[in-house]
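ingest -> validate -> predict -> emit
validate: passed (alphabet ok, no gaps, 55 aa)
predict: started
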Amino acid sequence: MVCETALEILDGKSPKSIPITQNKEGEIVVNLKVANAANVDIPYTIVEVASQVIQ
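emit:
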């Protein structure tokens, strides 16, 4: 999970030493409110397949 990887990095582990993993659950959550606040454009193709869209 992403949170586990973030915790490893925060604990001082080098990101290069952490293997790349694949999302096995297949869930995509898009937070448009945060994306808009950060001035980030999320492509419609991603929003379209997202399991959850937060507006």
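The longest helix spans residues 2-10.
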